[in-house]
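Ticket #4471: structure export looks truncated?
Reporter: QA, pipeline team
Priority: medium

Steps to reproduce: submit the single chain below to the structure queue and open the exported record.
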Amino acid sequence: MGDDEKEIQCLKKMLAKSFEVKDLGHLHYFLGIEVAYGMQGIYLCQRKYVLDLLAETGMLGCRPAATPIEQNHRVLADSGDPVDKYQYQRLVGRLIYLSHTRPDIAYAVSVVSRYMHDPRSGHLDSVNRILRYLKSCPGKGILFSNNGHLNIEGYTDADWAGCLDDRRSTSGYCVFVGKNLVGWRSKKQSVVARSTAEAEFRSMASGVCELIWLKLLLRELHLYNGAPLQLYCDNQAAIKIVNNPVYHDRTKHVEIDRHFIKEKLEAGTLQVNYVRSEKQLADVLTKGVCVLNFSEICNKMGLLDIFAPS
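Actual output as written to the record:
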């Protein structure tokens, strides 16, 4: 990786003296991920992978769905009768790999992957809902454009007590470099949160770790511009606790996360900003949302389908 074409060519020649290597030129297809180049930038998708998956499961002729999961879904551990565990695990495993370029299905896949040990018919219905959504947009992917800067910013959110089985919350974050989506995650928290602020704190701590990792990576590549990391959260209580050193007994259960985030704030490497809930991009990583919000957030994330008819 580098910006010196002459040095890159010298390195290739040096490697060719010791190893059997072949220069295939620009990347176009790798492990099911398709790469396209255009005036707007570089586009990543897994269209062929999706179509092969739909053909294998017999879902090519299914009725498309507008979202990968229902808005107020009630997926429980005992939803329906037991189904073939091997088939379910294989199908969910393929969806997990697909989520490498499809943050729009990340939350839905995280929900169905919770029941790999004991899949039921209700869980399989949720998997089929994801496949129906993929039928509506098999070529959707991520566009990376040159926006003239490499500022790092992230959005964090948490769905408090969203899991109906054990009342654990779901954390979600998405990270941008130069307005391009480069990282995202949707995961159920390991402990039960006693308040929305606590759930948001745990999500914020995970998001800050990702921001710091990206900062170190850009610094290693001599691309970091020194701008503070920007973190956006829609929970004002969590933001006030971070900025107010007076809280003591109320925050003992999140003391480590609070001190970790506050340390970065005091050092000037991080800025925590409030964002309104309707503009919270991490919403699609923590819960099912309505069609309108889902479509709007996907557009803001840089997700588009270059194969869709104009």
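Status: closed, not a bug. The export was complete when the record was re-opened. Leaving a note from the reviewer for reference: The radius of gyration is 21 Å.
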